[in-house]
Design a protein that fits this description.
Length: 401
């Protein structure tokens, strides 16, 4: 699920970009005198968007049907040179004027921000890497509640910004007896059902319910091996999220991404007597959304890449009962992009941690985990509770869990 937020900042931010825009205008006048001699047709009557300084300013898409054609032939414009420079001047002046309006009216940053897609943050935890040939059926009910949004410095954005999400994800996996590189071939499918309610102080308000994007994956699962006094087991899977979820470019809040998500992971577990440690390391890559929210007035946008990890440690209180600590960490490593322009200070980060409980018996597992978020950047900050119900249907050669 994804939604778009308007980020708050200080007046210093706006005036900094105002000064940059002024320097661009000054360099144009000093370096290109002919740009000052604009013909009546030199300036466009409407804009798709304006980009200058270190971030784009989103303006409403215009409706002028007589505007000139866009550049063709690998970015070479068909307009005369003076007219090209005149258009650039007009765009820069528009940016300067809009920056002045923002500075005088309010300290609200004047561009919209795309969000990373929803990923596995704490959904998998205790004894994560154990599995054997057969079917695995899982259901992941989850609740997420956030009452505030954080900016790029971790400061709370002013106003009431509640975000509430309830979801359940159906997970079906099959581990075959076919071996490749010593591991069993794995295939999996995940389908989330989501109820998302967003009420932001900037006026964004929407509730969306429906199916989110379908995820399919394949990989290898290795059997446990003795390591010292314990056992080590691991798995590698390549997951791909397909743009099948509920989405509309007329809504600012969506539960479908409308782009492809590539999210491979490596899971490992080490268990010794009553103690076990598990981790799952992911890398996230997103393709481009060519039909973004129309309110942006842009042609495409691409969320940045990110690294995220789940980790957990538990202790066996009894044979079928484990109590432990679990957490997750997400760090975006490349900037979001709008129409190919990077958005500085847009990288997201969050850290979640909390207690967990696992109860098992007769090929059934129930896991209950809670997380409080901290050290958040450019995204909501709240808490989440996950419940994972697992059922295995072994087909033989099942490792002990």
């Amino acid at each position: 699920m994804r939604f778009y937020v308007t980020k708050y900042t200080s007046l210093k931010w706006t005036f900094t970009r105002w000064s940059r825009s002024f320097s661009v205008i000054w360099s144009m006048f000093t370096s290109h005198p002919e740009a000052r001699r604009r013909s009546p047709r030199a300036g466009p009557s409407s804009f798709d968007y304006v980009a200058a300084g270190s971030g784009p300013l989103i303006l409403q898409r215009g409706a002028d049907e007589n505007r000139a054609a866009p550049p063709v032939g690998g970015g070479v414009s068909i307009l005369p040179k003076a007219q090209q420079q005149g258009r650039l001047l007009a765009r820069t002046v528009a940016l300067l004027m809009a920056g002045m309006v923002c500075a005088l009216a309010s300290p609200v940053l004047c561009f919209a921000q795309v969000q990373l897609p929803t990923v596995n943050l704490g959904d998998t935890n205790f004894e994560d890497a154990f599995a054997g040939p057969g079917w695995l059926l899982q259901e992941f009910p989850e609740a997420y509640v956030a009452s505030e949004l954080k900016d790029s410095h971790g400061k709370t954005i002013l106003g009431s910004n509640p975000v509430t999400g309830y979801s359940t994800t159906t997970h079906v996996a099959f581990i075959s007896k076919k071996r490749v590189l010593g591991g069993w071939l794995v295939g999996e499918v995940l389908q989330p059902l989501v109820d998302l309610d967003v009420q932001l102080a900037n006026g964004t308000s929407s509730r969306v319910r429906g199916l989110a994007d379908l995820t399919v994956g394949t990989g290898l699962q290795w059997a446990p091996k003795k390591s010292g006094d314990g056992a080590f087991v691991h798995r590698v899977v390549l997951d791909v999220g397909l743009p099948t979820g509920k989405y509309s470019d007329r809504r600012s809040v969506n539960i479908g991404n409308h782009f492809v998500v590539v999210n491979p992971y490596y899971a490992l577990t080490y268990e010794r007597k009553q103690v076990e440690f598990s981790a799952r390391l992911h890398y996230l890559w997103n393709s481009t959304n060519t039909d973004p929210y129309v309110g942006f007035g842009i042609n495409d946008m691409q969320p940045g890449q990110a690294f995220h990890v789940n980790y957990a440690a538990s202790y066996a209180l009894r044979k079928n009962v484990r109590l432990g600590f679990n957490g997750y960490w997400l760090q975006q490593v490349t900037d979001h992009e709008l129409d190919g322009t990077s958005l500085p200070d847009s990288r997201e980060r969050t850290v979640g941690f909390g207690p967990g409980l696992q109860v098992s018996g007769r090929n059934l597992w129930l896991r209950l985990n809670g997380y409080m978020e901290a050290n958040v950047r450019n995204r909501p900050s709240g808490f989440k509770v996950t419940l994972r119900l697992s059922k295995t249907l072994p087909t033989g050669e099942v490792p002990k869990q």
